[in-house]
Amino acid sequence: MPGQARKGRTTAFPDSSRLPVPPGTTCIEHVWIPVRDGVRLSARIWLPDDANERPVPALLEATPYRKDDITAPGDASRHGYFAQHGYASVRLDIRGSGDSEGILLDEYLAQEQQDALDVISWIARQPWCTSRVGMFGVSWGGFAALQTAALRPPELAAIITVSSSDDRFAEDVHYMGGCVLAHYLLSWATTMGIYATLPPDPAVVGEAWRERWHERLSRARPMIEPWLSHQRRDAYWKHGSVCEDYSAIRCPVYAIGGWADGYRDTVLRLLEHLEAPRKGLIGPWSHHYPDEAVPPGPAIGFLQECLRWWDYWLKDVDTGIMDEPPLRVWMQDAAAPRTSYEVRPGRWLTEPGWPSPNVEGRELFLTPAGLREEPASEAPIAVATPQTTGLLAGDWDPFGNPADLPPDQRAEDGCSVTFTSEPLTEPVAILGQPRVVLELMSDQPAALLAVRLCDVWEDGASALITRGLLNLTHREGSEQPLPLRPGGRETVAVSLQAIAQVVPAGHRLRVSVSSTYWPWAWPSPAAPVITLLTGRGCRLELPVRAGWEHAPRPADFGPPEQAVSPETVTVAFRPGDYELTASLGRSRYELVHRYPEFQVRWPHSGVELSWVEPDTFTIVGTDPLSARVDCRRTVSLARGDWSVRLEATAAMAADAEQFFVTASLQAYERESCAFANAWSFRVPRDHV
Question: HSE on the CB side for 248, CA within 13 Å?
Fold first, then answer.
């Protein structure tokens, strides 16, 4: 087999002997896997020591996040654990990323999916593999597992998908409810531009590293250009969205998410619509694997749970996992509003399927007196909120950083139109997606709504439960948006993100409605006045989990396990934060999202990486056309006398008719500029 390996430890990099490998396993640091067009993809493979004599099933994780540095610590623990328990475990850099050949031009291209089929076929043919393969991953890796499963490679026996989406338009970092997701659209495009243009490691690819790096740099384009050019749910987004044909997936699927994650609705949709064997698990987690000690916890013994799944489907061992209820959720207790929770209190519940027969619908009506059990006579209520509403929204896709979650919502409630219930006489356990139905009129042809559901404590604190956005031109669907008829009466439904949470007796429920939500939603071209026509047509539809307090508690997952504790040396670290400044005289507000800034070194490769990526969101409270996003990335890799650095900037603004985007990229080898490019383009606004 190509590559270098040594039992109990690895070789390939200078001073690589410090990469920990579990006893009884072998790690092959670098393997070239050829695909049909001649491109070679780079992989690291963990094997049981005797796999060549006693073949084992294999597991594949495929992402662009650089196996040799950025994901190396987690990979060593996770893949090493699977190898220690009788699996070949393969970590692949997808085409154009890390050490793999080729160019990474966009997310989830058909070429990437074809590569996955070729890689799975290659794995199944190896002498150490029984020809049965599983696929797993978090985020991009979870998308890849779903998309590959929909292509039905014969060797793929089962998948585990974590924090992913079945619908690339409805639930990803680009759009939400048909609204341009200003918080992440440009930000993630800029970050992916870095991943697509970082060089391969010279210790792996040799002298060819520079040529391949310059090929990546010269062919790079801002990924936001196609994303922003498709502002409706067209063929671009349908590609890779497995919801287009759930029946295409025939292998078993274990779908996992977290209530603090941006992708949690997918788990329930997969359980409802897949025909293949499936299980779902939703905990309190953010955008991470559930065994990682990242707030909010509790972390669980996720790797043990994976083994139960893999053993059942890849080794024909009856672990009992398919005898258990198909859905397990963490029913969260009420918690005072904070931007981070080490552990979110609650308990596990199981459901016999989804939709669950244990969930009952309850209606509360939006009236001038508040949220009530009975509707009142119709009355108009105007919604015309300041452009600054939403500055305390928190992160769209939290990663467990100290300021990710939304703080006390009283300030946001004060900028919105609110409907608050009387104190609850008994606890209410919400499980599923609440929905708010509204009858309304708008004075503009384009408008949006943000709807939040909050738990109001006895002292007045307002803790966000869940929320949703709707571009009102997408009220009948996102494939063919329809402008509003100013003054015309419309009935719309805003679906809120799924949640499981108990609201205690004595607390109150609050529905807050706003016509702005910056920086999550890009503002409408003109500030609308939306008139709610309260009455029977304006209501909160609440999914209530009956009998939750008496439901039997399932067995605990147990604590997280790992095979090794990979060593990463932190040279410098600054935690993430949100910093809000205002010029009250000019009504100008600036929100800086500082992601964690860090400098780390991996002893196994000697590589040192530094990463800085602030995003700045600016708006004037009275002017929707003042909205602007600025992103900056500075990322460097170094080892000995090898040193490279990427500096990227991007900016996005709009007038009433089009978006304006500029971007730049500079690449440095040591301190000499090796490459520079800049882009500028305009994209017409399409019903946003």
Answer: 16
DSSP state of 549: G
| Domain co-membership, 483 together with 367 | yes
Distance CA 452, CA 544 (A): 17
Q: Which two tokens stand for residue 190?
A: 């800029």
Q: Which residues contact 560 (CB under 8 A, 6 or more apart)?
A: 291, 292, 293, 299, 300, 301, 302, 303
Alpha-carbon torsion (57, 63, 67, 70), positive or negative = negative
pLDDT tens for 142-164 read 999 999 999 999 999 999 999 99
Cα separation values, 267 from 158, 308, 543, Å: 16, 19, 16
Alpha-carbon distance of 388 to 619, in angstroms, equals: 7
Contacts 24+ apart (CB under 8 A), 11-18: 12/203, 12/204, 13/68, 13/201, 13/203, 13/204, 13/604, 13/605, 13/606, 14/203, 14/605, 14/606, 14/639, 14/640, 15/603, 15/604, 15/606, 16/604, 16/605, 17/604, 18/567, 18/603, 18/604
Kindly give, in sequence order, each residue whose CB lies less than 8 Å from that of residue 335, ignoring residues fewer than 6 positions away: 341, 344, 345, 463
Same domain, 389 and 537: yes
Burial class (CB in 10 A: 0-12, 13-18, 19+), 211: exposed
3-state secondary structure of 413: helix
Q: Are residues 370 and 460 in the same domain?
A: yes
| CATH code for position 381 | 2.60.120.260
- Across the chain, what does the average pLDDT equal? 95
Distance CA 390, CA 593 (A): 14
Q: Are 256 and 161 in contact (CB under 8 A)?
A: yes
The answer to whether residue 527 sits within a structural domain is yes
Nearest-10 Cα torsion for 328, 330, 331, 336: -170
Say if residue 16's pLDDT is above 50. Answer: no
The contacts of residue 656 (CB under 8 Å, 6+ apart) are 525, 526, 625, 685
Three-state secondary structure readout of 63-114: ECCCCCCCCHHHHHHHHHHHHHCCCEEEEEECCCCCCCCCCCCCCCCHHHHH
Distance CA 173, CA 176 (A): 8
- Domain co-membership, 397 together with 439: yes
Q: Which residue range forms the structural domain that includes residue 364?
A: 359-550
How far, in whole angstroms, is CA 549 from its chain's centroid? Answer: 31
140-150 vs 110-124: helix crossing angle, rounded to 10: 80
- 684 in the same domain as 581: yes
pLDDT at 570: 82
Cα distances (Å, whole numbers) of residue 7 to 10, 55, 60, 202: 7, 17, 21, 24
Report the pLDDT value the prediction gives residue 571, as an integer from 0 to 100.
81
Identify whether 385 is part of a domain: yes
The structural domain count of the chain equals 2
Six-digit token string for 374 = 């009975």
DSSP state of 123: H
Q: Are residues 469 and 390 in the same domain?
A: yes
pTM of the model: 0.96
Same domain? For 514 and 376 the reply is: yes
**480 lies in the same domain as 430:** yes
